[in-house]
Write a structure and sequence with these properties.
InterPro entries: DUF3427, DUF8090, Helicase/UvrB_N, Helicase_ATP-bd, Helicase_C-like, Helicase_Restrict-Modif_Enz, P-loop_NTPase. The chain is built from 31 helices and 25 strands. The protein is an alpha/beta fold and about 725 residues long.
Length: about 725
């Protein structure tokens, strides 16, 4: 198993000679010694063990532990026959792209290569998967490791870093105001938190991660002046110095009842990144993070320094000092293991804390830290090309080929909808054309637009009807409505009333869009009326599907959409095509409520009644900024999981038509549907939770809106279905 429960990779090479010898290659002598000790615990006296390093020159052993630096020397390597080892294990296998590792791998010819790494997803262009023939023997992530009790429980505390003289710490602080990072005031604050949250065991054995060597060395000096025993370690320190420091940190000493310590020891080691990987210090019982989160990978690596189990250690305390860092959103991504980059999911992880992590571990963010993380989430662009390309590259390396749409879900990578959401792309096809040199397919402009339409409008799977009709269209060409009805009944036990048929037809004939959307997809007309009164494939599309490459792309998109429907949207609420607690845009709601035409959000303005379908969706932004205009500063709020106070539009009285429709919805056959979103400031994720239907209690209160002369009406609602507890807590308290 790799450091911090990373991925274990293996590759196979046939070799004629049989040998039971094992070579274990590491990049630091300290790790070789730790590995040797672990192997002895397993194999005992049944094997002989040797260490080949700068300080030890063993070569003849059943299991030989060697540093890469020593083994890559020509005069050392050639002492061994190419096939003298049956198995070669490479620790920190993501390093195998380096020339020294390649030299070793080119020379030896074992039957079995085993690579172990916690960082298979690289930020450089090296493909560690290819090195091991893309054979993944085992992959285990943090959540699974916690479930299987492989790691020490942890208690994570996200703590707001302090402000000094009105200056908030961020990425520029070290350059512009380094003195604040190492000021007495900040050190007082840090040590107070360290003492308050504590550790497990007789004494603290801590690692402190800093932003720079300068910060680490300066803070170590200040801590020592205050009576702590600490040392700063950087890349400039020798292996011997590092081992000596770790020995002082982890050694057992006498600790009196009053806390007095005796002997030579260290309380903390300050470092930047040399302990991110490749070091095993099980005794660490407190990890302090005084730096921005560079990536989820680095965060987990640093967190993992304290997750090794050890005697007399029941848990490890993680203290993460959170400042105004733009990458704060990476913290909940790392802790949850969710790589879909869905903003609302990430916000909920911050709110729900320990629900994310199995077992007895806990996660807690203070209120200001939450706000800082929320702000970072709001400004982050998860459809950013750089992020998409990085996730795509990792998946391609893992698969050894261009991934298909389902691979993104199958391997837990970024939600492919993030690609569809990118305005410069709009489809996976467009992404591959732009950024994948091995992708040779090229479509016409009209074919490309059809692919984009399906990707952006239908492939999420929020309604099955269009997907069924288009799937049949690829095969049968005509009688599409009747075929869709039959298919829906047979496959999903769904009836398809006329209002739904009309809605589907409008979507597929470009009659549903409004505003600029109608012009954008003016050539996306999939079907046309046939002589028998049904619908058939449109003539332009009939020609397009003769292109097998276009046909295959559309078919894959439709299959992906059907999969997403069955996974996420098949358990519909009452007689709607909506699913409780799923998220929908304004356009989604208009389409799934079978409105004849889409309405732009400005025209909806909080709610809008559609006379044809007798549906009345209400859209509530639960968090409203303080600077919003008074005329639209409606104080909508839940009073319980099943009751809500909502405010009418401005210039309304109890006698206004919309208010009367609300009050008499039941007898008038009107369905009032509730949609709520948590954060309106996010300019990218514009989705609302669907919370079901609601009915007024009859209670109303007319009032004058603050700082205006505009009237409005407060209306009390009873939800047909109480809001699920976790969603309710997230909306109300998040």
């Amino acid at each position: 198993m790799g450091d911090n429960n990373g991925n274990v990779k293996s590759g196979f090479k046939n070799n004629s000679k049989k040998s039971n010898r094992i070579l274990f290659i590491v990049h630091r002598e300290q790790i070789a010694k730790q590995a040797l000790k672990s192997y002895k615990n397993v194999f005992g006296r049944s094997k002989t063990y040797g260490l080949l390093s700068g300080n030890s020159k063993d070569t003849d052993a059943d299991i030989l532990f060697a540093t890469m630096q020593m083994m890559s020397k020509e005069e050392v390597m050639t002492q061994f026959q190419k096939d003298c080892f049956k198995t070669i294990v490479i620790d920190e296998a993501h390093r195998t792209g380096a020339a020294s590792y390649q030299k070793i791998m080119d020379y030896f010819e074992p039957e079995f290569w085993l690579g172990m790494t916690a960082s298979p997803e690289r930020t450089d262009d090296f493909d560690v998967f290819a090195t091991f023939d893309h054979n993944i023997a085992l992959e285990i992530r943090l959540q699974q490791a916690m479930e299987e009790n492989l790691l020490c429980p942890f208690h994570y505390f996200g703590i707001t870093d302090m402000e000094m003289d009105g200056i908030v710490i961020d990425e520029k602080t070290e350059i512009e105001n380094f003195r604040f990072l190492v000021s007495d005031k900040r050190v007082d604050y840090i040590t107070r938190q360290m003492n308050f949250y504590g550790y497990s065991g007789d004494r603290v054995k801590g690692l402190i991660f800093c932003s720079s060597r300068k910060e680490a060395e300066t803070l170590s000096g200040i801590f020592n002046e205050r009576g702590y025993k600490t040392k700063a370690l950087t890349g400039a320190d020798s292996q011997e110095e590092r081992e000596d420091a770790i020995e002082l940190l982890t050694k057992d000493i006498q600790v009196d009842i009053d806390g007095t310590k005796h002997g030579d020891y260290l309380d903390y080691i300050f470092t930047v990144d040399i302990f991110n990987e490749g070091v095993d210090i099980p005794e660490v019982n407190q990890v302090v993070m005084l730096r921005p989160t560079e990536s989820p990978i680095v965060f987990i690596q640093q967190l993992g320094r304290g997750l090794r189990k050890a005697d007399d250690k029941d848990f490890v305390v993680i203290l993460d000092f959170i400042a105004n860092y733009k990458n704060n959103f990476m913290i909940p991504i790392a802790l949850s293991g969710d790589r879909t980059y869905n903003k609302d999911n990430i916000r909920r992880y911050v709110t729900e804390g320990e629900k994310v992590i199995p077992g007895i571990s806990t996660i807690h963010f203070d209120e200001i830290s939450k706000k800082k993380i929320y702000a970072a989430i709001d400004t982050a662009n998860f459809s950013d090309i750089k992020l998409i390309r990085e996730n795509y590259k990792n998946l391609k390396y893992k698969l050894r080929c261009i991934p298909n749409l389902m691979d993104f879900d199958r391997y837990g990578e970024m939600d492919v909808l993030r690609i569809f959401d990118n305005n410069s792309l709009g489809s996976y096809y467009k992404f591959l054309v732009k950024y994948e040199k091995d992708y040779k397919i090229r479509l016409s402009a009209n074919e490309e637009k059809i692919v984009e339409f399906i990707s952006k409008k239908l492939a999420s799977g929020k309604r099955i009807h269009e997907l069924e009709m288009l799937s049949r269209m690829l095969i049968y060409k005509d009688t599409l409505v009747q075929g869709m009805k039959t298919s829906l009944k047979e496959n999903y036990n769904k009836d398809c009333p006329d209002k739904v048929v009309k809605s589907v037809v409008n979507v597929l004939t470009n009659e549903f869009p409004s505003g600029s959307g109608k012009k954008t997809y003016e050539d996306c007309v999939f079907i046309e009326k046939s002589q028998d009164g049904d619908f058939e494939i449109s003539k332009p599309l009939q020609k397009m599907i003769h292109n097998k490459e276009f046909y295959d792309i559309v078919k894959e998109l439709l299959e992906f959409g059907r999969y997403r429907y069955e996974r996420d949207y098949s358990k519909t609420y009452q007689d709607t095509e909506l699913v409780l607690y799923q998220k929908y845009t304004y356009e989604d709601a208009c389409r799934l409520l079978n409105w004849e035409h889409n309405e732009v959000p400005l025209n909806i303005g909080g709610y809008k009644y559609d006379k044809t379908t007798k549906t009345f969706p209400v859209f509530i932004n639960y968090d409203k900024s303080d600077d919003i205009q008074d005329t639209i500063k409606y104080e909508d709020h839940f009073t319980s999981r099943s009751s809500l106070i909502a405010i009418s539009k401005q210039s309304r009285t109890v006698e206004s038509e919309d208010v009367q429709n609300f009050l008499h919805a039941k007898e008038r056959g009107i369905d009032v549907e509730l949609f709520v979103r948590k954060n309106k400031d996010d300019k990218i994720s514009k989705e609302f939770y669907y919370l079901g239907r609601m009915t007024t209690t009859g209670f109303t209160r007319p009032f004058i809106m603050p700082n205006t002369d505009k009237t409005a009406v407060e209306i009390e609602w009873k939800l047909d279905t109480p809001v699920r507890e976790d969603i309710y807590q997230y909306i109300v308290n998040g």
